[in-house]
Structure prediction request, 590 residues.
Amino acid sequence: MSELVLAVPSKGRLEEQTRIAFAKAGMNIKRPGGARSYQGEIAGNSEIIIRFLSAGEIARELIRGNLHLGVTGADLIYEAAENGAEMVDFAVPLDFGQADVVIAVPNAWIDVSRMHDLSDVAADFSSNRDRWLRVATKYINLTRRYFARYGIAEYRIVESLGATEAAPATGAADLIVDITSTGSTLKANGLKILEDGIILKSQANLIISKTAPLDSDQLKQIAKILAVFGV
Amino acid sequence: MFEKREQLLALLSSSGAELVNPATLLPASDYFDLAGEEFGRHLLLTEGADGVKYCLRPDFTLPIARQYIKSASYSPASLSYLGPVFRQRADGPSEFEQAGLELIAQENADAALYQVFDFVREGLEVFAIESPSIRIGCVALFEELLEKLDMPDVWKPRLRRRFGSSTAMENLLQRLSMPQNSIQQSISFKKTREQLIEQITQTMLDDGLSLIEGRLPEEIAERFLEKQALAAAKVPEKSVALLRDYLAISDEPETALNSAEKLFGDTNLSLESQLNILRQQAKELSNRFPNSPIKLDLSFSPRLHYYTGLVFELAETSGKTIASGGQYDRLLQALGASKQVSASGGALWVNRLEEGADK
Prediction:
């Protein structure tokens, strides 16, 4: 029989809180080789292999079906592939890692408080200039989908992999889409979140891949894990 | 199949058309600059070692127009093409073939459009398709209607930008017909334009924003005031209703044109000359496709700013598009031409035509 592969974030608060959540459910995650090792196990259960991977990698590999299940942020699943969310099952919300993916514009834009304002501004901007309104973000798929829902077509994305909140001040973009838990970084950078600008309320989830092939033993293992989480 | 291909190639070099073959790998920025992120998401992208983004050719019109501008002579050109295009689809990347004709800077723009009709008809004939269903729309009529419609000018370009997307248009029309007080609630203080500009400038400086790069303080203040003005004097209900009625017209061309004419007549708008142009264009089309059901849908247009006149789309019985095109007089200027150059063209979706012919 083949083991079930469960991926856990490899470092930081996400790893810590995943351990706590699993321990509460009666499963102790062991990492025999210490923080440098990428393999682990659940005490007393030889049918599950633990892999320690980065949260982004877990999202990608769940979608591709190279992992059976894993713990990662919902935002990363949505972002890893355009149809990522359809490839997985968000089985257990774990009540940590809460953060929102939001649209934020400069405070100086006193005329903009909602998405419909932004849609006027985008249309005006591209009519008056030879460039589009620019949105800095690493959340390309989420941004495109949300803007499309509000019928906004007149913009361009500037890919930003760090310090997105600084993009308006550096002139790299006019507004941003970014993740925030308290909003304080945005505030410190003179940005405000649009009233209807919350694209996704994200948190860590125990996620099952829909694309990974599962045999009957593995299915039983998954059912057991879900049962201890009360699902 | 070889025979059909030869007939298609013969058609592509008939009537003095020059068969051209633009590059398959193109700078992606052209497409992003022209059509924005909505179109950009359908590109198959790759990156050079220097970080510059390239894409696999998603259509022929843009590279052909680019090449034409480089020649800088702006003389009449009749350019045709046949080859693969690449697009990102919901179910993954796809490659398919298109054949088409671009007529640029022709002396008679309407005659050029009719020549495109001829090309499409003859192309479909190669594959023994005689009565496709046809949908047409008209950008020029909508633009003229907007121009003459009673409403604050600021709304006109915004409505134009949304033409072609029913969701985006409906969102805006709903806002325009919103009762006044719900807008007024969001406005809590009154300041003069100068006071506002000063306040905005100060905020921008405090937050380290450039005063010249992005939205300007004047722009922000003006839109803020305009929001207030809208609360006081909004877009007349009649105009919103007229737009809704207009966009809902979708019928056999003569009937649709009569409905539009009646609608304009009821509101004392005169768009007679534009209606006559469209009437003539529809007639020319139905002469060429006497057995086809033709529908004039006044909300139909690609959501791309460079389309100007008639737009059309032909579909086979299953509903799949097998040919499309139209007039796009603003394309060349948008790509950097020094003046407006008339252009019209049409593309055949070769794979779908071949699949149909196989059956």
Notes: Residues 180-232 of chain B form one domain. The interface with chain A takes residues 32-33, 36-38, 40-41, 90, 154, 157-158, 161-162, 165, 167-169, 171-172, 175, 186, 196, 199-200, 203-204, 206-210, 213-215, 217, 219-221, 223-224, 226-227, 303 of chain B (CB under 8 Å). Residues 198 and 217 of chain B are 8 Å apart (CA to CA). Confidence is low (pLDDT under 50) at residues 181-187 of chain B.
